[in-house]
UniProtKB/TrEMBL annotation:
PANTHER family: PERIPLASMIC SERINE ENDOPROTEASE DEGP-LIKE-RELATED, SERINE PROTEASE FAMILY S1C HTRA-RELATED. Residues 269-342, 406-473 form the PDZ domain. It comes from the Bacteria. The keyword Transit peptide does not apply. Residues 1-23 form the signal peptide. It comes from Sphingomonas changnyeongensis. GO terms for molecular function: serine-type endopeptidase activity. This is Probable periplasmic serine endoprotease DegP-like. Keywords: Hydrolase, Periplasm, Protease, Repeat, Serine protease, Signal, Stress response. It catalyses: Acts on substrates that are at least partially unfolded. The cleavage site P1 residue is normally between a pair of hydrophobic residues, such as Val-|-Val. Its EC number is 3.4.21.107. It is found in: Periplasm. Substrate binds at H115, D151, G223, N224, S225.
Amino acid sequence: MRYAYAITSALLLGGVASSLTLHQPLGAQQAQTAAAAPRGAPQSFADLAARLQPAVVNISTTQRVQVRSANPFAGTPFADLFGGGEAGRPVTRQAQSLGSGFIISADGYIVTNNHVVAPGREGAVVETITVTLPDRREFKARLIGRDLASDLAVLKIDAANMPFVQFGDSTRTRVGDWVLAIGNPFGLGGTVTAGIVSALHRNTGQGGAYDRYIQTDASINQGNSGGPMFDLNGNVIGINTAIFSPSGGNVGIGFAIPAEQAKPVIDQLMKGGRVKRGYLGVQIQPIDETIAESLGLEKNRGELIAGVEPGQAAERAGIRQGDVVVSVGGEPVTPDQTLSYLVSNSAIGAKVPIELLRDGRRMTVTVTVGERPPEEQLAQRFGGEDGQFGNEENDEDTQAAAQAAIGLAVQPLTPAIARQVGAPANTRGLVIGGIDPSSDAATKGLQRGDIIIAINRRPAASLDDVRAAVAEAKAAERGSVLLLVQRGANPPRYIGVRIKK
């Protein structure tokens, strides 16, 4: 995934295309064109573009960044003369960013992506935000509010009688509808592209309550971030935010934040408030094919609780690590409608029934929805370091792993090993000492030094626990087991591992 950031300059190389036209009577040619055009397809987007372009703006920032100098003359008498001082001394540099936005009120409120106006790197400071209108007028903008979770921001310029556009109802958008994207790709200024809605509620795997996009094949490139996606009525139904691209350029897969998600956030930011969201206090992970097999579940149904925060709403309601949540307030949990999305859009303080599966039993608990902490606080709470475990794997470890049913050689976790791998002192489990490179465990990315806390939702304290879990899975005709794995000080994650045949 790439955000549609802009670059300060670009060299576009064009070629000459040739085509072969079969001559036929004009009437027949017109009849073919009419038959091929779907109902509602415009003859031209020109009138619509002319009406909407005045409200779409270019946004640029200037930033101050401190970087470490690399002075090749450091340590010599010429250090100050040619190299700017000693190596490693902080040097202040200027940086820029470019993006798009759109005016939503006559008095100059502007919507864009947060990443367009955010510092480009750690330690950077945004000094100015400049808004450039299509008629080349420039305004200094104030940041009214920003929201990291939704990647949205609201700016204000001191102006009156500005052209503006309005949000539409994205819930009525259908796959195949025409859309128009206007923005600032590669810093080129107002550029109009057209396409169709390729998919709705697209989950890109990034996680969170806002991983639910409109996908389009309208050309979106670096610098389109924050620009509007219009329907044919001229209403904003999405905010262009990201592209999927192996090359960095447009390949026909772009993503926009739906208006139904963006507008409530924008309304709160315009009032100068912080966006409040529902919160359970759990770590969540989707259920892939192997995990579903290890639990005897259907694919694409429910999400797995990888961890429960002490004292938060989920723990108070009795939700446990390893539970599978299948519905929230009667709404099913699916890849298109995730647990994060359903909970975040629940009213704070509301009592919501949550249906879950535990050890094969279906049960319902009632949760009083809490308030989500700020994103910075969550990042500090769940950030961790990957641990290192002794030296590289030896031949004995590899041979033991090759003989093990799940391709892993394990040993009890001691306090000394816990310190080596950077795990909390109270961690209990089995540490991985060797991995069979041909096993499914290796394919899933398990590493030497990872800690298996539980297997098939039971504590893993000895090799006998692993053997018993494998035997139980085979007796139930399941081809995989479910491991709860912790790496360093990071939160534990569930991983389904196939049993070797």
